[in-house]
Amino acid sequence: MNPNAKITDEQFEAYLKQVRELVEGPFDEMQKEIEVTNTFPEEFYELAKKNDLYRFYLPSEYGGWDLNELEILRVQEEFSRGPGGMRMHLHHAADMNWRILDDYGKPELKAKYMDKFQDKTIYCNFAITEQNGGTGADLHTTALKDENGNYVLNGEKWLISHTDCSDFTYVIAVTDPEKSGDERLSAFFVPNDAPGFEIVPMPHMMGCKGAGHAGLKFTNLVLSPEYLLGEEGQGMEIAIHSLSVSRVHIAMSNLGMAQRMLEISLKRANDRVTFGKPIASRQMIKAKIADMQMMVHVLRTAIYDFARDFDIDPHNDYVTEKAAICKLFSIQTVKLVSDEMLEIFGGDGYFEDSPYGPTERLYRDCRAMWLEEGAPCVQRITIARETQNHGGVIKYNF
Ligand SMILES: Cc1cc2nc3c(=O)[nH]c(=O)nc-3n(C[C@H](O)[C@H](O)[C@H](O)COP(=O)(O)OP(=O)(O)OC[C@H]3O[C@@H](n4cnc5c(N)ncnc54)[C@H](O)[C@@H]3O)c2cc1C
Questions:
Q1: Start and end of every Acyl-CoA dehydrogenase/oxidase C-terminal domain (predicted)?
Q2: For the chain, how many structural domains are there in total?
């Protein structure tokens, strides 16, 4: 453990085991109904609270355990083995949910709210995406100042997660329409019970059921200046820094799922006998297992490398680039591993309720990762920009 952590090595290892048993036991079981209702039951939130899943990542001043980034990510790997919607909720809880307010909130807001994350008294979602514009200077939601110095929010957001269980929304909006670049944008901490805040229902998704996706509509929603995060014009910078870290959490989600898919594929390949031999003994199957393990191993090392650098300096020169690399490579990993899992399982893998694990659900759930925190094109644009800026040479800490 890092020397500042409030738990011991033994307690941490026991906690990782506890989380795995929870997600592969009660959470997997609970998900069967959530696949139909698309809503988490109260029992899910209660179990998450009881198992410290809203607490473990927080600094001790806010009720947490002072874990470093690598330790937080290791817990994330465990809960990512479970249902995708719950993973999405818990990944967001451990990350942007509290970090944005902590990093960019005004002292009076932080004093009021930062100790309320530990037991989910508050939960904050994040809204940047719009249906009618690109993510960046092309956003259309506005927050213009009125004659009293307050901001008046108008516009719409789309594809927003956790809308059914959030108390606040981090919103990126245009504050200076005269400007043309990212400096048009600012970030706000918006109370969801403010007059003018509306949730617009969306159709159900392919996987990750229960994560509360919807659109948002703001009509003349008035915000006093204390709800501005950082400075005016800093909106995109706040979004990019927060998304960078979150991209690694997405990469870790893919790693957790890919690791579980690899393990259940191995078990199945050992058990399934055709023409007198387990398929695990066939060279074609061994090649699949080797490719799966290669991707899982390389992804793990890339994430651990990011986390080590982040723990030394959260604003180091390679945060954005390495986070995009982790996210992009994790999509390649989960794509290959989920395809190979399906081939190793044969027809049984296409059905629900396999005795080895939820193959069909894992295959669907992992597809959300293509889009969460930016599509592969966006990761490539980011990596190319950073690589061209520094001439292609990354400095490593090993
Ligand atoms: C499960 C799920 C959860 C989500 N949760 C949230 C959330 O909580 N909050 C939130 O704000 N958003 C959320 N999103 C939205 C998500 O971030 C976007 O779907 C994603 O960033 C892609 O943006 P888009 O859907 O607007 O696609 P588009 O912008 O329409 O992009 C379509 C394709 O075109 C490419 N493209 C677009 N513009 C360019 C360009 N200039 N140059 C090159 N290629 C380009 C994209 O890379 C992509 O491949 C979520 C999405 C999903 C699926």
A1: 233-386
A2: 3
